[in-house]
Write a structure and sequence with these properties.
Helix content: 10-25%
Strand order of the largest sheet: 1-2-5-4-3-6
CATH topology of the largest domain: Elongation Factor Tu (Ef-tu), domain 3
Catalytic activity: 2 6,7-dimethyl-8-(1-D-ribityl)lumazine + H(+) = 5-amino-6-(D-ribitylamino)uracil + riboflavin
CATH class of the largest domain: Mainly Beta
Radius of gyration: 18 Å
Structural class: mainly beta
Subunit structure: Homotrimer.
Function: Catalyzes the dismutation of two molecules of 6,7-dimethyl-8-ribityllumazine, resulting in the formation of riboflavin and 5-amino-6-(D-ribitylamino)uracil.
Number of helices: 4
Pathway: Cofactor biosynthesis; riboflavin biosynthesis; riboflavin from 2-hydroxy-3-oxobutyl phosphate and 5-amino-6-(D-ribitylamino)uracil: step 2/2
Number of domains: 2
Keywords: Repeat, Riboflavin biosynthesis, Transferase
Length: 215
C-alpha cells in the first residue's frame, strides 16, 4: 500500500528487454536507505518488487501484464521516474489509499501555467469516468492528486509548486502517456452497490446505509 506522496525522482540506468517483459535498473538514493529484498517500490505508480539492490540502485522485474497495462514499457535509459516506498504502518498518511495496481493509461492533452499552479488536462479511458468526480482523488504516475474539473472523459488537475519540483509530472509533454490509478474506495463502492452483474442501481442515501457505508 502506498500514499501517492512521491519520495524522490530516480533515473533509469538500464532496461533488459524481452518480448513482453523486462528487468529495470533504477538509480536512487533516499528510498534505498532501508531497502530489503522483496520490498515493494512504486515506480511511476506501479508496484514493483526489489530483486537486487546496491547502495545506489535497485532492480525489479516487469511482468507481461504490467508491460501491457502501464506506460513503463516506454521508459529507456536516462528516463526519470517517480519513486515511493510502501507505506509504513507508523507513518503519516499524507495522500490517499494507493495500491500500485494501475487501472490503465491516459494521455496529456493540455498543460498551462496559472500563476504558481500548473494545470494539466488528461484524457482518460471512457470506462473509468464513473470513478472520477470534482474534488475526488486520483493517482497519476504514482502522485496523489485532487481532480478539480471533469468533462466527459477529460479531467484537469492542478500541480502546486512542490509537486512540480519533486515529481516528473511537470516535465511531461502534450501527447505523453501517464499511468492512472483511480480511487480505491470509489471502485469498491461501484462494485458493491453500483452496476453489478448487469444490475443498475441508483446510489442513494438509503442504499449506502443498507450496505454499511454510512450510519
Amino acid at each position: 500500500m502506498f500514499t501517492g506522496i512521491v519520495e524522490e525522482v530516480g533515473t533509469v540506468l538500464r532496461i533488459d528487454r524481452k518480448a513482453k517483459s523486462f528487468t529495470i535498473h533504477i538509480q536512487a538514493q533516499r528510498i534505498l536507505e532501508d531497502v530489503n529484498l522483496g520490498d515493494s517500490i512504486a515506480v511511476n505508480g506501479v508496484c514493483l518488487t526489489v530483486t537486487e539492490f546496491t547502495r545506489s540502485s535497485f532492480q525489479a522485474d516487469v511482468m507481461p501484464e504490467t508491460f501491457k497495462a502501464t506506460s513503463l514499457s516506454m521508459l529507456s535509459s536516462g528516463s526519470k521516474v517517480n519513486l515511493e516506498r510502501a507505506m509504513a504502518a507508523n507513518g503519516r498518511f499524507g495522500g490517499h489509499f494507493v495500491s500500485g495496481h494501475i487501472d490503465g493509461t491516459g494521455t496529456l492533452l493540455d498543460k498551462k501555467r496559472v500563476e504558481n499552479a500548473l494545470y494539466m488536462t488528461i484524457q482518460i479511458p471512457e470506462q473509468f469516468k464513473v470513478f472520477v468526480l470534482e474534488k475526488g482523488s486520483i493517482a497519476i504516475d504514482g502522485t496523489s492528486l485532487t481532480i478539480f474539473e471533469t468533462e466527459g472523459e477529460k479531467i484537469t488537475i492542478s500541480l502546486v509548486p512542490h509537486t512540480q519540483n519533486e515529481t516528473i509530472l511537470a516535465g511531461k509533454n502534450v501527447g505523453d502517456p501517464v499511468n492512472l490509478e483511480f480511487d480505491m474506495l470509489a471502485k469498491y463502492i461501484h462494485r458493491m452497490v453500483g452496476n453489478r452483474e448487469g444490475e443498475k442501481k441508483e446510489i442513494t442515501m438509503g442504499l449506502l446505509t443498507e450496505n454499511g457505508f454510512i450510519e
